[in-house]
Specification:
- The chain is about 35% helix and about 25% strand.
- By secondary structure, it is α+β, with helices and mostly antiparallel strands.
- The strands form two sheets. A four-stranded antiparallel beta sheet has the order 2-3-1-4, covered by helices on one side. Strands 5-6-7 form a three-stranded antiparallel beta sheet.
- A hairpin with a 2-residue loop joins strand 6 and strand 7 (about 130).
- It is globular, with a radius of gyration of 16 Å.
C-alpha cells in the first residue's frame, strides 16, 4: 500500500494541527485545487523530537495523481512554491537504503538521457532492471 503514499518533509509542527488541511493547502499551492477527492488520509509519523518536525504521511487514491504531484513538486516553480517543504515517495526502510546506493547510477543514466525509474526496490533504466550493489 506504500505505492499510494507520499511523505511531506519540512513542514513545521504545531500542537493540534490538521494534517489533512496542511496537505490540501500544499496541493492547492502546486495547482491541484480540486484534489480533495485524491486524498484519503494524512498524519504525522515517528517519535516527536524538538530539533526536527516529523514527516507527514499522506495516503492517496491514485498512483497517476501521485506521479503528477511529485513531478510538480520537483519543478523549480514547485520548489519555490513549497518554500522548503518537499514531497517525496514513501519508501520502506529497505527500499530507501537500496535507492540511496542507486543514486549515482540513476544520475549517470539520467545525464545520458535514459529513462530512469526506481520502484519496489528495483532500479529500472530504459525498462531494464539494473543490479544495485
Amino acid at each position: 500500500s506504500r505505492d499510494f503514499n507520499i511523505r511531506i518533509l519540512g513542514v513545521n509542527e504545531t500542537q493540534g494541527e490538521d494534517c489533512l488541511g496542511i496537505t490540501m493547502n500544499l496541493f492547492s499551492s502546486l495547482g491541484f485545487e480540486d484534489a480533495g477527492a485524491e486524498l484519503e488520509n494524512a498524519h504525522r509519523t515517528g517519535k516527536k523530537r524538538d530539533d526536527k518536525p516529523r514527516h507527514i504521511i499522506a495516503k492517496l487514491y491514485s498512483r497517476p495523481f501521485k506521479r503528477k504531484l511529485i513531478q510538480a513538486s520537483r519543478s523549480e516553480e514547485g520548489k519555490a512554491t513549497l518554500g522548503g517543504a518537499r514531497i517525496v515517495e514513501d519508501f520502506s526502510p529497505t527500499d530507501f537504503e537500496v535507492r540511496k546506493k542507486a543514486l549515482p547510477l540513476m544520475k549517470m543514466a539520467y545525464d545520458e538521457g535514459k529513462k530512469v525509474r526506481f520502484t519496489r526496490g528495483k532500479l529500472l533504466v530504459d525498462g531494464r532492471e539494473i543490479a544495485v550493489v
